[in-house]
């Protein structure tokens, strides 16, 4: 009888012990799971509180490759992507607003000028001599041309940036093109008393590129060189082979560009001298267009400059 009671007591103790042990074990597992879930939910909350801009790194205790760990890793990757895309969207929006502000400023100046001249012609129609009328009309036409150039440049750059331009690639002698473009500027250079020379090496191989676009690159670089080179200066356009590439150099003896400005000049709307207003028709788009065209051809554009001594732009293109 006594033996039975002892056995019964032992069995009861064992059962109670097992139940207590199971309870403690379940509690530990439960706590382990809830701690990790709580950390995950706190991370999600912190990400939301940061305005979805700062992804929170998830550092879960234990290195278990279970569902919670995979869920956390997926959330971390997702939050990083959301933050990155949000950043990109904000940047695009900032650029769009900047572009709108710059465009409206640059369009306003020549438009106001043109309106002024045309209104004067209307109001004083009876008093104006034919020379005066001609002069006013010429000024209005000039502003009209500037507006046209600005709109055309903007249109071109927007299309290049949106990758909507397909270059018509063909093989052509780059040296001949350089000489033709230099020829186009010869009269203007003469008027500005600037020496403009083309130096093309005779054994220069042809390149594979869009001829119209490369012409545009040369025009932009020569136009800049003319604009920033004083009377008596010199501009040289050189074409020479450089290994498997062809190097195109536009060198001037103009005012040069300070070192700290060199990184910015290829940005759209960047002008070293901001006081050079949009009224002059120089919006600061030329080099941005030039760089996009060169990149579209898998080439590269570099600039070297010494203030007071001159500037050299170097474009390299693949040979045919
Ligand atoms: N050869 C150069 N010598 C000195 N400064 C230059 C030269 N080329 C460019 N720059 C500087 O870089 C800036 C940007 O040139 P970019 O061609 O993009 O614009 P822009 O000539 O002012 O206007 P746009 O080309 O739109 O008519 C210029 O405003 C000028 O300050
Ligand atoms: Mg320019």
**Protein structure class:** alpha+beta
Strand order of the main beta sheet, please?
A: 2-4-5-7-6
Count of alpha and pi helical runs:
6
**Distance from first to last alpha carbon:** 108 Å
Notes on the structure:
By secondary structure, the chain is of the alpha+beta class. The protein has three domains: 2-86; 103-161, Helix Hairpins (Orthogonal Bundle), CATH 1.10.287.130; 169-318, Heat Shock Protein 90. It has helices spanning 2-49, 67-123, 130-161, 174-191, 211-227, 286-296; strands spanning 169-172, 195-200, 207-210, 234-242, 245-252, 300-306, 310-318. A five-stranded mixed beta sheet has the order 2-4-5-7-6, with helices on one face. Bound molecules: adenosine-5'-triphosphate (ATP) and magnesium ion (MG). Magnesium ion is lined by residues 220, 223-224, 286. Residues 220, 223-224, 286 line the site of magnesium ion.
Topology of helices and strands:
Blueprint: H1 2-49, H2 67-123, H3 130-161, E1 169-172, H4 174-191, E2 195-200, E3 207-210, H5 211-227, E4 234-242, E5 245-252, H6 286-296, E6 300-306, E7 310-318
Parallel strand pairs: 2-4
Antiparallel strand pairs: 1-3, 4-5, 5-7, 6-7
Bound molecules: adenosine-5'-triphosphate and magnesium ion (MG).
Adenosine-5'-triphosphate binds next to helix 5 and helix 6.
